[in-house]
Every structure is written in structure tokens, then in C-alpha cells.
Write the C-alpha cells for this entry.
Amino acid sequence: NAGVTQTPKFQVLKTGQSMTLQCAQDMNHNSMYWYRQDPGMGLRLIYYSASEGTTDKGEVPNGYNVSRLNKREFSLRLESAAPSQTSVYFCASNTGYGTDTQYFGPGTRLTVL
Amino acid sequence: GQQVMQIPQYQHVQEGEDFTTYCNSSTTLSNIQWYKQRPGGHPVFLIQLVKSGEVKKQKRLTFQFGEAKKNSSLHITATQTTDVGTYFCAPSGGSNYKLTFGKGTLLTVNP
């Protein structure tokens, strides 16, 4: 099992460009999450999907959109990238029940110039 | 989500010294999870605490959940260079299945 995979690993964008970060999990998990991590700020939840067909905003959703394509895949889209979106992006998944732990992907390191 | 404060933000120790990080909440927590993130890596689950006053050990790591379930700690005995990384706590459980991570404690170890 690959667990949670993310593509790309690295990306450099110019201000105003758009891109989609891809995430897939092979653990048959119901819930999936997108976080961003900035120095000194910990992990902040951008969007999450409790189950296939549902998505909800997290703590910092502005400037992002998501799509839960199917049970396996959850993508994050930046429509018009800004330098403030320079960050490391992590996707995570879990069963979605109560106290279940989260499994993280390796991350995407995004720089917006 | 439930908010927690982690202290200290940074800790530098000599190899062999002990290390403790604390996670504090103003409200009662249902459960709490701990994660470790190595430099350049992704967060990895370490443990979950559920019961009031619970103590769990993993080799040199000791995790505690306070009696009032408002605080938790992670103690590492005789640190090694492999312990380097950021340790995060995250309240879990209850009606909220989302995790709200603390800002983490970055541990560096001087060999």
C-alpha cells in the first residue's frame, strides 16, 4: 500500500498562475484533509471532506477550492496564486470516525514568486 | 475546533539530556493525539490518550494526560539525535473529528 500520495512534490508558480495539487489514498478512508504549514504556524486546516461528495471549509480556506473526485482522490486548487500561498501543503486521510488518527502524505512544497 | 497551546516553541538539548513538551487547553479535551514530524518530512502519528490521568510509554517516550483532561505532556528520556523534529499535539474525539494542531515544539539535539 502506498498510503497517501501527493503530486507534485515541488512547484514554483508566478503570481496569478493557477494550479491543482493532487492527493490520493489507498486505505479506503472516508475523510480527507488539506493543510498548509508555515514556519511557526503549525498545521492549519484549509479544507476537508468528511465523506465522498462533501467538502467543508477549514481554518484558512480563502484563495483555495477543493474537489473530492471520488473516495480515493481529493484535490486542492489555487485559482490565482499569491506569494502569501507559498507554503508546504499536506494532504491527510482517516476513517473519519471519532478518534481515528490521520495519515499524512509527503507534502508539496509550493513557492509563489 | 479545540485550541491548544504548546510550550516551549523551541528546545535545544545536548544528547543524553531529557526533554519535555507541554500541551495546554482552557477547555476539557475528549482525547489528545501526538505527532512527530522529522525535518523535511510529514507528521507521523505517535499516540492517542483517552483517559483522565493516563500515562503511556513508548521506549524512551512517556506521554501523560492530565487528571482534568486539560493538559498533556510528552517526555523524552536521554534524547538521541534521532529524536530531532517537531512534536505536535492535537485534540481529537468528541463530536469533532477534525484535528486542530498545536503550533508544535521543535526539538534539536546537539550530539
User: Anything to note?
Assistant: Chain A has a mean pLDDT of 93. The first strand of chain A starts at residue 4 and ends at 7. Chain A touches chain B through 28 residues (CB under 8 Å). Chain A has no helices and eleven strands.
